Amino acid sequence: MTAPVFLDVDGTSIAVRRAAGAAPGIVWLGGYKSDMLGTKAEKLSEWASGQGRAFLRHDYSGHGESGGDFADGTISNWLSQSLAVFRHFTQGRQILVGSSMGAWIALRMVQELRQDKSGEDRIAGLVLLAPAPDFTAELVEPALTKAQKRDLAKKGFFEEPSDYSAEPYIYTRALIEDGRNNRVMTGPIDTHCPVHILQGLADADVPPSHALKLVGLLPADDVTLSLIPDGDHRLSRPQDLDMLVRAVDAMVRQAG
């Protein structure tokens, strides 16, 4: 495992791992409280290396090897960092692979890059796993308990046990309020590139109905939805990882 390099983004040191190779390259965008050395990212790194294909990944602030405090993070911050890493380390067309919250970041990156004329044709495709765009407004806020609302008002955050870590998830008032300003599921989403969504039907964190709603907002002729009957939110079993690799490989071939 090579050591990461670091990119300063607005005073925060963002950890990056990059492998040079052929285009279109692969850019990994992890989920909430995930890091770039997770099972899915490692599997894609291994596959990209075997294919001689460029692969880029980073940790958001407050995640993994990056600097910053997790509780200070917002979608806007993590989006800004992802765009900075993308612009600094990639050339040519890229395929964004976003897991859970990373799918939200990917969709927002497409929007931002298309506003920048130099980046409007940079995205060759999107592969989204258990996508959780707008999760703060669509999934967290509607389920808030009275106690959680009280904590948000008084402390500015609330905690929730995590199935994936000994440390609880922290949801801050800033994250929720900023999430409203980054919503993408308010109307048609024109990605200008093909999209492949992988969604487990046994996902207890992001319901399959959320992926179906997202599909309904995307151009039908450019979208593939793969439903995995016994797949959970992590989609990290060997068969899930094989499906991920097949989806990314097919996207690469489609991009030419």
Strands in their spatial order, largest beta sheet: 1-2-4-3-5-6-9-10
Q: How many structural domains does the protein architecture include?
A: 1
Structural class: alpha/beta
Low-confidence stretches: none
Short description:
This protein has 256 residues and is α/β, with parallel strands linked by helices. It contains 8 helices and 10 strands. It has a single domain, classed as Alpha/Beta hydrolase fold, catalytic domain (Rossmann fold, 3-Layer(aba) Sandwich), CATH 3.40.50.1820.
Task: Please describe what this structure looks like.
With 256 residues, the chain is of the alpha/beta class. The chain has one domain: Rossmann fold, CATH 3.40.50. It has helices spanning 39-51, 75-89, 101-115, 135-140, 146-154, 173-181, 208-217, 238-255, and strands spanning 5-9, 12-19, 22-29, 53-58, 94-99, 123-129, 157-160, 169-172, 195-200, 223-228. The strands form 2 sheets. An 8-stranded mixed β-sheet has the order 1-2-4-3-5-6-9-10, sandwiched between helices. A two-stranded antiparallel ribbon has the order 7-8. A hairpin with a 2-residue loop joins strand 1 (5-9) and strand 2. Helix 2 (75-89) packs across helix 3 (101-115). The protein is globular and about 50 Å long.
